[in-house]
Every structure is written in structure tokens, then in C-alpha cells.
Amino acid sequence: MLTVDFEYFDLAPGQVCVDLGCGEGRHSLTAYLQDDVSVVGVDLSLDDLKTAQSRIADMTPHAPQGAVDFVQANGMSLPLADHSVDRLICSEVLEHIPNYLSFLEEIDRVLKPDGRLCISVPRQWPEWICWMLCDDYRRTPGGHIRIFNARHLRREVERYGFQGTRQHGAHALHVPYWWLKCLFWHLTKEPKILSLYHRFLVWDLMKRPWLTKTLDALFNPWMGKSVVLYFDRAQNR
């Protein structure tokens, strides 16, 4: 399930792409499928990195050329040289980080002068409803500790010499699922409606029928669970 739209990310042969907070590698492995791109997935969770590593073999036959590595590291102190990265993804990460500005500082340090950045975070108003429905949604260890206003976040990133170029929503059909999950959070047995909705989302992910693609296109601009922001270095930097 991709949040980043790689059509807007302009990966080119010979480039280095870092997936900061890569989790189980969904964006790292997709970038690996691009021609002759070197990908580095970075995360703190060793278990997630092991899962991502185990999936490389499945992707390799489809990757024309290039490399992918997964590294355990703290996003506040990346094991990367200054200005060594062409493209950087930070998807669904900043909402978990107490000092997210330290991540932006590291991103600024490692990206090249002509680098490109993509950040995604949960959209403000659907996330707020999740918080209102269930305190444990945000209090669970590793959960979301803040709600971002996309306009404010864009301004914060632009303070580091970036220029916002594009914005879109993603995963609108997932919003009702999370509202239901929060509503029934404390039930021991999962309600039927929740399991049915989960099956629907899996079906949508695997089949991508025209109906759900159309609904996504209609609802993502204002209801997408994630808001996705793209940045280039400001020309006057």
C-alpha cells in the first residue's frame, strides 16, 4: 500500500534514495524497482527491518538494476555523509517523533542541493476524530503523539530551504476503518463490521477495481487518511 506517488518523485538512474522510517519497506522496495537506483531503508525497529530484508528476494527478479539495503539507525543521527542523497522519503513517521524538527535538520543535512523530498503525515481532521473516539489510539507505545496541520508543516519544512511543489491525499477509504477501530478499541472480540471492512480494504488493495479507484480519486483531496507533501530545494538557496 503506497502513500508516495512515484510519478511525482522523479527517480533517475544512478540516484541514491533514502526511505527514512521505512518500516517493513513498502516504499524502499518500490524505489528498488526503478532502474539503477541505490536505495537505503532506515528504521529503528529491527523486527521491521528483518521483514523488509526478507522481501528483497521477491522483488529482485522485477528490479532491472540497482541495490537496496536496510539499516538500523536513529533518524536524528543518520549514518550518511552531508549532501549525499538525491531523493528522500519520510512517510507516516513525523507524527511518532517527539522532536520532529531534528529529523528535518538531518534531512536538510543529507539531501543534495538539487535533492527532492516527500513527507506524508495523517490528515488533521480524520486524525482528530480518532483521538476523540479513543485515548488509547494515541497513548499506545509507538502511537501518534501529535496532529499535524499540513499548511503549518509545509511552512516548517520550507524554513530549511525547501519549496513545496505538490500536495495530495491518500487512502481515503481507510478513514472509516480507523474510526471504527477506535470506536471498538476496548472490545475483546473484534466486531463483524470491522473484520468485514478490513476484508474490503484487502480486496481493494489486491484487485484495485474501477469503483474504489474512482472513490479514492473523489475523496482523497479532502478525506485521504494521509496528506502527502513534495518539496524541492528552493532555487535561491
Low-confidence stretches: none
How many angstroms separate the termini?
Answer: 34 Å
**Beta-sheet strand percentage?**
15-25%
CATH topology of the domain at 6-123 and 140-170 and 225-233: Rossmann fold
CATH arch. level architecture of the domain at 6-123 and 140-170 and 225-233: 3-Layer(aba) Sandwich
What does the main sheet amount to?
7 strands, mixed
Q: Could you say which overall geometry the principal axes of the C-alpha atoms support?
A: globular
CATH class of the domain at 6-123 and 140-170 and 225-233 reads Alpha Beta
- The structure class reads alpha/beta
Helix coverage percent: 25-40%
Average per-residue pLDDT, rounded, comes to 95
| Total helical elements | 10
Order of helices and strands: EHEHHEEHEHHHEHHHE
Structural overview:
This protein has a domain at 6-123 and 140-170 and 225-233: Vaccinia Virus protein VP39 (Rossmann fold), CATH 3.40.50. Helices cover 39% and strands 23% of the residues. It has helices at residues 26-32, 46-54, 56-59, 100-110, 124-133, 136-139, 150-158, 175-183, 192-207, 210-223, and strands at residues 16-20, 37-43, 66-72, 85-91, 111-122, 162-170, 226-233. A seven-stranded mixed beta sheet has the order 3-2-1-4-5-7-6, sandwiched between helices. Helix 4 links the parallel strand 4 (85-91) and strand 5. Helix 5 (124-133) packs parallel to helix 8.
What's the structural blueprint in terms of helices and strands?
Elements lengths: L15 E5 L5 H7 L4 E7 L2 H9 L1 H4 L6 E7 L12 E7 L8 H11 E12 L1 H10 L2 H4 L10 H9 L3 E9 L4 H9 L8 H16 L2 H14 L2 E8 L4
Parallel strand pairs: 1-2, 1-4, 2-3, 4-5
Antiparallel strand pairs: 5-7, 6-7
